[in-house]
Amino acid sequence: MINSSLCEMLGIKYPVFQGGMAWIADGKLAAAVSNGGGLGIIAAGNADAEYVARQIKIAKELTDKPFGVNIMLLSPYADEVAKLVAEEKVAVVTTGAGNPSKYMEMWKEAGIKVIPVVASCALAKLMQRLGASAVIAEGGESGGHIGELATIVLVPQIADTVTIPVIAAGGIADGRGVAAAFMLGACGVQVGTRFLAAEECSIHPTYKEKIIKAKDLCTMVTGRRLGHPVRALRTNFQREYLKAEYTDISDEELEAMGAGSLRKAVVDGNSDEGCFLAGQSAAMVTKIQPAVDIVRELCEEAEPLLKGAAKWVR
Ligand code: TUI
Given ligand 1 and candidates 114, 115, 117, which is best to mutate, with the most ligand atoms within 8 Å of its CB? Predict the structure, then answer.
């Protein structure tokens, strides 16, 4: 059975985090993943504290296992959500899209295990110094907001930089990815895209269908001009947005073009105007299944691969 120091630290059965996907990862999905033995994570995204409090309540009603909350640091509500999670004393807080230094003391005082997403060694080092329990090294294969480096180069560099546990993310959607992550120096994984196809994931059926049908070259990156590159499924809308980035329209107009596009994908399944965030692993996601099966399959597939790695050595 796959096991690591992360399991003892967090009181979970499998070292598998569900990514904190904005608009998508609600209390129901997080509870299903936690009940399956992984760590479910509620995404605050751009929502206010009231929404997050409601999702925490839902998760607590559905599971007695630990779960986390992800705080998207670009959100205008990041401050109020940061205070809420400290009051609620959630087990784990993960952060994304920025540097959470100013909240670290408050969270640690509340006894929260803080596990930031890092996309560079400098931020990983700083997070360790400020008391992070672990870091998530997320490579550019992932969906949503991405850093510069790919998982295969980011994870070992972060593992060489810090002594706290490293969780690998970006491009991991099956047992081969899990096994590879351990080889790269990680002691756990975070998986997003595969959980889009979880039965308990409440995205619009059109979104799920697009993930199941996705092929290898089906994602693309937009948003570089405004400094927030984002990976999503290649749709007409994404193509038009990318084209617009290379014209002389103002930054404000460009921003307005993308406004509300995540909601349009997740809630409305709007193929023409929605931004369907997804990682490069979308093509590896081929079926809808309960979250518990996803967590178990990821680890059970990795086991013989890790055991069998000795076959490469004489
Ligand atoms: O955050 C994510 N993925 C996301 S956030 C999101 S919602 C969004 N809304 C508006 C604009 C952009 C996104 C959709 N998907 N993943 C975690 C992640 N964090 N990936 C990369 C980073 C990151 C990048 C730079 C973390 C820290 C960082 O350093 C900043 C610094 O100040 O050092």
Answer: 117
